[in-house]
Amino acid sequence: MLVKRSIGLAFRFCLTFTLALLCGNAAVAWESAHGDRDNSGFVNVTTAPAGAGSISVPGLGAFSPGAGPVIAPDGTVYLATRQGKLIALDADGKLLWFNPFIQGQSVVASPAVGSDGSIYVIGVSRKRDPSGDPSKVTINSTLHRFAKSGALLAQISFPAHGGMGPAAASPPNVLNVDGGDVIIVPTLYAATPKSRPMVRLIAFTPEGQVLDDAVVRPLAADVTGSVDWGPLVDILPHANYTPPKANDLMDVPPMPGVAIGIDSGAPLVAVSDHEKELVGYRFANGLFTEVFRKRQGFFVRTPPVISGTRVLIGLQETGDPKTIGGLFSTTFSANRSTKIDNIQATHASPTRLADGRIVLVGTRGQVTVIDGNKVVGTKSSPGRSMASAAASRTHFFVSSEDAFTTFDAKTLAEVSRVDWVGGGLHPPAIGPKGHVYAIASNILFVFPPKFPFGSTIQQPQSGLTIAPNPQPAAAQEKEYKPPMTTGGNRLFACEELDQDDCGKGDHTDISLAWCQKEGYPKVKDYDVDSKKVIAETLDGRFCSRSKCKVFEQIVCANN
Hints:
Elements: H1 17-23, E1 55-57, E2 70-71, E3 77-80, E4 86-89, E5 95-99, E6 112-113, E7 119-127, E8 138-146, E9 152-157, E10 164-167, E11 173-177, E12 180-190, E13 198-204, E14 210-217, H2 229-233, E15 259-263, E16 266-272, E17 277-284, E18 287-295, E19 305-307, E20 310-316, E21 324-331, E22 337-344, E23 351-352, E24 358-361, E25 366-371, E26 374-380, E27 390-391, E28 395-399, E29 403-408, E30 414-419, E31 429-430, E32 436-440, E33 443-447, E34 456-457, E35 477-480, E36 490-491, H3 504-517, E37 522-531, E38 535-536, E39 548-557
């Protein structure tokens, strides 16, 4: 398969595979939003290219943009939904338990796993005054702690600082200090809906004690041209919320979490203020001490990465944040900074490969591989993306709108491509035995380390027995007439709930997502008609019209 290539500037921070493992933690578990605590997106295991033998797990619920799976060292996979449900699956996607723990709250970021196996997840609620006055929006956040069994251990309130908030829309990250965990969360507060939010960095004990509550960025009055409160919290739950598509990326990406590193036994923490400053702290005796504050002409809104004492973060140009970007690097140990231009803008965290090279996924699907002082490859992935890559010793995986692509970690060659719809919104993850996990159209796909024949379809939401692997020769195609949702309703054939601009593109994408959910890679045929029925989307939303376009028939095929 031909892949576009271009040349630009680059930067390299590790020289060999051995040095790469010394530069950061040689993680074998994906315990936080972007891999290990350092956000490197690298797991020191061997994987197979994504493709044959995949397992699809539909019906889990809806996932917020930027949120993805996290994985414990024993291979347990945890996900949290917008409906306020924490889900635990085994490595092959079989349901272990779920806890619908939040009443009136939504989860808008990935969970995190503590050193003792505890799972930390943040629930956020948003309430608007019936008068519609934007100044009367109430936002609240709670840090929930669960045991490995699914039992709720603690519900921890965030500190109040007046005004609007706390809005903890970032994923938590967990620092282990002297055998005890510290949960670190960037949190937003605002005086008014149009004011620039204050960003605070809060450190909790597992029992809920606040160790420190540092100001990353102070409150400010209404600022023309600044990033106001509204876009930052629009992903929080409200009645008219509609999930974005990868081809219609948010102007402002989700609030990023922190990166955590260790320097000679001293914990390091890097955080973005979600505007133009990257800030580094040392954490000692339960307190944050600021080490550096780097202000950029570009936006720094993505999750940072720590490797050794070096910090990297993707950039978005202020005038054209969806197209033009770069990579910024600085250090805790010395006042040295490097900025690399001419890279496609990114909403994703940089990913470290085993040999120290960096992979940066652009918003338009360009995948830039950075090595030394040059770009060794500019690959392409079909469709747009706001998802970081996931890397193993042997491969790196990229989720984009139209496909899930596997690249060889050494040669950078594309080795497999799985076509799908609705990708590019959630970072993939890698388990300790080499399973690869990815989300598209709110369906979890599991790509095993070895290739069994056929595909296995699981339905954990109903507790059904796992279906056996279908024999392709006996079921080359299957007709669904009509296809019905798990809620017993007709399958809606449009992306938008009001059916605006609904046409063949919508029908094609949704019918393909249906077939993939049922374990078939292709759509052979479909038929759509308008009916006065209850019409439901694959992610549990409903048509807002009295007469809705629904599928009368979908025919799925193996080839």
